[in-house]
Design goal:
Bound molecules: 2-oxoglutaric acid, fe (ii) ion
CATH class: Mainly Beta
GO molecular function, one term: oxidoreductase activity
Radius of gyration: 20 Å
Number of strands: 16
Strand content: 15-25%
CATH superfamily: B-lactam Antibiotic, Isopenicillin N Synthase, Chain
Family: Belongs to the iron/ascorbate-dependent oxidoreductase family.
Keywords: Iron, Metal-binding, Oxidoreductase
InterPro entries: DIOX_N, IPNS-like_FE2OG_OXY, IPNS-like_sf, Iron_ascorbate_oxido_reductase, Oxoglu/Fe-dep_dioxygenase_dom
Domain Fe2OG dioxygenase: 206-322
Length: 362
């Protein structure tokens, strides 16, 4: 259930411009605010994050094109003042999207996944448990792409003629999001006083994943009765996630002080939501929280009175992880011999991520 005693969101909103353009003391202040948010909630909204808002809008336009936005539903989704409807949308049939299929298995995270293929699981490694979860698959479709220089996971694109301009746009959007990840890592290094050059070089290969997500419209009753889910409660498994979401809402974050109780993390215009993943939580010796989150009913649909249909929803998560040979051992500032011993054995990023990804697809 959603906690009734919490208002919209306890997630702090931080003005990142003060880090990008500010004085040394302003940078330090922003770093401290982000550190505090990650300690307490594991999530932070960043305003003025430096990824051009027009570019974010354009990315949403591409997502709509890819996933067959119908002009009927779009006004409800985006509100009047965003430019996300400005392109001439056309329907891309499933056969076309299947020209770039996500390979089976959990080790090559690229290309198109049709609704129902993926079931996000939280710490489920037991085959029987995973099979049970799959009985109500997440009702969403996705398209994943990554760093064009990642030889281990080559991108899987549609033929250029099917969606001209899509690949170059996504490659450039990837770079903008990567830059933001590196800036956040620099802020975190400042907060922990990690000696120069800080954490950014541990992500030097930028083996990140850009995911385009579409949750099709569905009957409200299906979501309420848990006949279908949008995305089940889970934590992310890398270091940092950036999340851009449209205006529909429905993302919920677990109350750090009350397991099983969720509060809304509503979209905030022009802000990106950033959260800690499991690998980073471990690396920080649990100084930072990797908080469980899920996507359910948008807050304005919690009362059944009027609307029977939950509108479609689009979101764009960007998952960062460390270079695969990085040894994840408690970061400076996160442990000491006396009061805060290291909780975890050192592990490479590779060893850790493999274990988690195997649970996603099979
Ligand atoms: O769609 C969203 O808002 C959240 C997606 C998410 O949590 C994920 O893909 O890991
Ligand atoms: Fe997530």
């Amino acid at each position: 259930m959603v906690s009734p005693n919490l208002n919209d969101s306890d997630i702090p909103v931080v003005d990142f411009d003060k880090f990008l353009q500010g004085s040394e003391s302003e940078k330090e202040d922003v770093a401290k605010q982000i550190d505090k948010a990650f300690r307490e909630v594991g999530f932070v909204y960043l305003r003025n994050h430096g990824v051009d808002n027009g570019l974010v809008d354009e990315c949403f336009e591409w997502v709509c094109i890819l996933f067959q936005l119908s002009l009927h539903t779009s006004s409800d989704v985006y509100g009047a003042d965003r430019s996300r409807q400005s392109k001439k949308f056309f329907a891309l049939p499933t056969e076309t999207k299947m020209l770039a299929p996500h390979p089976p298995g959990g080790s090559h995270h690229r290309g198109y996944s049709a609704p129902g293929l993926e079931k996000v699981s939280q710490h489920q490694y037991d085959a029987g448990e995973i099979a049970k979860l799959r009985e109500t698959p997440d009702y969403k479709e996705s398209f994943e792409s990554g760093n064009p220089h990642d030889a281990a996971q080559p991108n899987i694109w549609l033929p250029e003629s099917k969606l001209p301009g899509f690949k170059p746009f996504m490659e450039s959007y990837f770079t903008h999001c990567s830059n933001l990840v590196h800036l956040i890592l620099t802020a975190l290094s400042l907060a922990l006083r990690v000696p120069a050059p800080g954490l950014s070089p541990t992500h030097s290969k930028s083996l990140f994943q850009l995911r385009l997500l579409h949750y099709p419209a569905m009957e409200r009753a299906q979501l309420v009765n848990e006949a279908r889910s949008r995305i089940n409660a889970h934590s992310d498994f890398g270091t940092l996630t950036l999340l851009f979401q449209d205006r529909v809402g429905g993302l919920e974050v677990e109350d750090p002080n009350e397991k099983g109780s969720f509060r809304p993390a509503p979209p905030i215009d022009d802000a990106v939501l950033v959260n800690i993943g499991d690998l980073m939580a471990r690396w920080s010796n649990d100084r930072w929280r990797s908080t469980v989150h899920r996507v359910g009913l948008p807050p304005n649909l919690t009362s059944p009175a009027t609307k029977k249909i939950v509108p479609e929803r689009y979101s764009i998560p960007f998952f960062a992880t460390a270079d695969m040979d990085t040894v994840i051992d408690a970061l400076p500032g996160c442990w000491d011999e006396v009061g805060r011993p290291k909780k975890y054995e050192p592990v490479t990023a590779w060893g850790y991520v493999q274990m988690r990804m195997a649970a996603l697809y099979e």
